[in-house]
Amino acid sequence: MKTLDDLLAEGVTGRRVLLRADLNVPLDGDRITDDGRVRASVPTITKLVEAGARVVITAHLGRPKGEPDPKFFLAPVAARLSELLGAEVAMATDVVGESAKAVVGALTDGHVALLENIRFDPRETSKDDAERGALADELAALVGADGAFVSDGFGVVHRKQASVYDVAKLLPRYAGDLVLAEIEVLRKLTDAPERPYVVVLGGAKPSDKIGVIKNLLTKVDRLLIGGGMAYTFLKSQGLEVGKSLLQEDQIQTVRDLLAEAEEREVEVCLPVDVVVAKDFAADAEHETVPTSAMPADQEGMDIGPVTRELFAVRLADAKTVFWNGPLGVFEFPAFAEGTNAVAKTLIDSKAFSVVGGGDSAAAVRQAGLPEDGFSHISTGGGASLEFLEGKELPGISVLED
Ligand code: ADP
Ligand code: MG
Known about the structure:
The chain is α/β, with parallel strands linked by helices. It is built from 15 helices and 17 strands. A 6-stranded parallel β-sheet has the order 5-6-4-1-7-8, with helices on both faces. The chain has a 6-stranded parallel β-sheet with strand order 11-10-9-15-16-17, sandwiched between helices. The protein binds adenosine-5'-diphosphate (ADP) and magnesium ion.
């Protein structure tokens, strides 16, 4: 796999370099609530700028439905990036259209342009190779015949998408510094992790993450499950989960997973108490109940104090820990305690600890906890999980051939 340093050694002065970055930050209106991913993208951009490249960044924000949507304009990101770089970032108002061509055409050496949200173009995430290929052609054409592609959006390397995968096949391709750093750390977790190896899973996407668990069962010693996904597990045990996040069609799968875990002697810890609320709101009235007594009209928002203690105990002897997904709705301070407790336990632990996931990392920063208390904070949740599962990541393998 060729790297950014290889590209710099070949020389980039005056060349246009297409950079896929991960700038997918959480927003409150047009205010960035956590700029971690923007900051993580700066080192690679800076190297290219200092080498005199004309840097054309493509990135996505949120999940627009394949058409322009003002909620997902990249303007706030361009503004923050300009501040961090200390130089203006020229923003195109479209993805690969007239504005993109004009902005890229006007770029001079050592300057940066940002194309509008790549997911405004439905071809980016199309399942049709030809459709994605057509968008990739247009992206490649923007940087021209002596252009190059640098892949640095670690959070999207598990996606077979036009700006991640297809375009890499059309240009000389290089792994950026962030992607390299992420891979190096995750390899430590996959190549002979020190045991006990404990994985903590939370977050909001049960369907995504339930699939991951099956693979992890062959690799880890212990799984601690909280967050929105926990309720499908609790339901599979015959418990009432009220209005909590639930993936009905996964209940049987989850039951099978628990049986398999037992067979493999992987310990699975589910919440034993939860904080429930009548509404999904920051100021919702709430109480702590055992998971065996969840009221039918309430929603599970966080793990309770007994579970926090249980998780701390089950993490105490860990030598290796991977954590993905907040244990509760941490955006509301009243429901951030479970997430903060796990974060603090890991910070105090001597284990090799890796946090993966945009929201998990944001939760750590929101709580004002020291980021260097962890061995590594990954910018990619899904990507890091798939890496740990041993899956092939299309955005990485395409750089290898
Ligand atoms: P990451 O970005 O770290 O991979 P996810 O995107 O999977 O994590 O999940 C983060 C989201 O999960 C947060 O917005 C959080 O509010 C939500 N979440 C956690 N616990 C619950 C819960 N009990 N009910 C609903 N949402 C939850
Ligand atoms: Mg997330």
